[in-house]
Amino acid sequence: MTSMYCVKCRAKKEVSETTKKVAKNGKPMLQSKCPDCSTGMTKFVAA
């Protein structure tokens, strides 16, 4: 489980399903949906 921040709920949320992607600038990131409001969340991670 990964902890990510939801801007709509203004709180950290624990998410279980994440997708690994690479941003346009080449930085790796995780994407998921908030379990409460279904807003998209993004977290940049170390390579």
Task: Walk me through this protein's architecture.
The chain is an all-beta fold. It has strands spanning about 1-5, 10-15, 20, 30-35, 40-45. It has no helices and five strands. The strands form two sheets. Strands 3-4-5 form a three-stranded antiparallel β-sheet, with no helix packed on it. A two-stranded antiparallel ribbon has the order 1-2. The mean pLDDT is about 95.
Give a quick set of tags describing it.
single chain; 47 residues; mainly beta; 3-stranded antiparallel β-sheet; two-stranded antiparallel sheet; 53% strand; elongated
Q: List the secondary-structure elements in sequence, H or E.
A: EEEEE
Q: Quick one: overall form? A: elongated
Number of helices: 0
User: What structural class is derived from the secondary structure elements?
Assistant: mainly beta
Strands ordered across the widest β-sheet? 3-4-5
Count structural domains: 1
End-to-end C-alpha gap: 19 Å
Average pLDDT number: 96
Largest sheet: 3 strands, antiparallel
- Overall strand count: 5
Q: What's the alpha carbon Rg, rounded to whole Å?
A: 11 Å
Oligomeric form of this entry? Answer: single chain
Strand content: over 45%
What share of residues is helical?
under 10%
Low-confidence blocks of residues? none
